[in-house]
Amino acid sequence: MADITIDHLHKEFGLGADKVVALEDVNLSIGGHAFVSVVGPSGCGKSTLLNILSGIDVPTSGRVTITQDGRPARAGYVFQAARLLPWRSVMDNMLFVQKDRSEATRKRCQHYLEMVQLGDKGSKYPGELSGGMQQRVGIARAFSTEPDVLFMDEPFSHLDAITARTLRKELHTIWADTGKTVVFVTHDVGEAVELSNRILVFAKGGRLADDIDVKLPFPRDVADSEVALMKADVFKTFENLGAMAVT
């Protein structure tokens, strides 16, 4: 688990007339065993926020601090695509991001492959796997480094509905079992409500417009009436903002 503090975060791209504000004076804290989803219309700064939190990008101004028990936190990242090396086996892709290739490390990688139902696929190559299986490997790989916080950028957006639903359930099981902090960017409000105990709603211009606690009991399903009501409440937030709707 990690503690994340964001103080007056501002990010802009370009200069002069071409300047675009991606994030505007964002202030928030995330701590403990949290699953936080970030939602909002296209261009509201969701991915920019994740890139800054993960260290891929830097802010124009403001500060981000991510710690675990007073030390810099270890972070993992899951992208929209699995980004597996096609010439390496599944297990070698897992081992590629590790500090060593010891037997203990290999057993840890195998453990996470089993958690995503791919325990027998270690010798396979990415081209032999479906897109959903490849994304499972990407999730297992990220967790196998044992990060304190995991950043996920729309990891299920390119998958069919049935595969995405299965992976959401597997992701939630891993999160519940490991106690990690997860920050999850999605364009799908239903997905956010199903997975999260907190939803950050961003508006155009990169402004944090709402911070919603989701107190529904787990497990959840998008077909549940309480999930549907919460989803409607989030959509209402978008309507009040005059923002473009998300799915």
TrEMBL record:
Protein known as: Nitrate/sulfonate/bicarbonate ABC transporter ATP-binding protein
Species of the source: Mycolicibacterium agri (Mycobacterium agri)
Keyword flag ATP-binding: yes
GO molecular function, one term: ATP binding
Pfam families xref list: ABC_tran
Domain ABC transporter: start-end pairs: 4-229
Entry-linked PROSITE patterns: ABC_TRANSPORTER_1 (PS00211), ABC_TRANSPORTER_2 (PS50893)
InterPro entries assigned: AAA+_ATPase, ABC_transporter-like_ATP-bd, ABC_transporter-like_CS, ABC_transporter_ATP-bind, P-loop_NTPase
Signal peptide: none
Keywords associated with the record: ATP-binding, Nucleotide-binding, Transport
